Amino acid sequence: MTGLKRKFIDVAMLSLVATLLAACGSTSLNRAPVEERANRGGSPVVGSSSVVKQPQGFENAGKPGYYTVKPGDTLLRISLDNGQSAQDVARWSQVQNPNRIEVGQVLRVVPPVSAEVLVKPVVKPVIAASAAKPAASAEASVVPVTSPAVSSDAEINWIWPASGAVLAVFDEAKNKGLDIGGALGDPVLAAAEGRVVYVGSGLRGYGNLIILKHNNVFLTAYAHNQTLLVKEDQSVLKGQKIAEMGNSDTDRVKLHFEVRRQGKPVDPAKFLPAR
After folding, report:
1. What SS3 class is residue 17?
2. What's the whole-model pTM score?
3. How far apart are CA 53 and CA 61, in angstroms?
4. Does pLDDT of 232 surpass 70?
């Protein structure tokens, strides 16, 4: 190969190498495509893997009859504060595990059909035919008929749940009921006819606790018992022995008795008969 041909080939090779280097400098061979995760407002976009699952029931937040779970809440405490049983709130809210609720979860704390609808008088039209004309040409008249009145939920005849002396009276800030003294094992009685909606010790500060639901307005709570004698969903009569007095989760033998009207603690002395 002549020197001239070799020089020509070397120049051609140098030109090719320069072209390849220039192409590599303008295009990165190692960059991977980047997926946009959020829009300018910072919210997830469709198809983004960063979409956060909303708490159960979030679409009902802020609506009447619903409660948004806060840190430290329990289903039992929420239910008691709203005058409902934990079983009912769990069922209305489709809670699978009553022992596990999450902050931000929204619970229904009123029945799906309100008590106002249930007790509202129903007007039914009654068709009456005029006796002065033949049946075939009788003119129908509408006569409003009201269903029988429904007795008030507040009509309850209460009795004292224990016979001991009152140790502490109701104080909305410090004592949400009455503390009644007695001896270990003294009978604790249902203050009115009702249904047992809670039996256990899952509410801090109450010890062995029983909660009765009397109607759509009133609950009663019986705390610090030694022995619990009823089961959940059991119906009880006024004056029935439901527990034996004790000192669970407290410093002395006593019964802590609460009356709750639509979930709010009220003074039991205003409902119990005078001694």
Report:
1. helix
2. 0.66
3. 15
4. yes
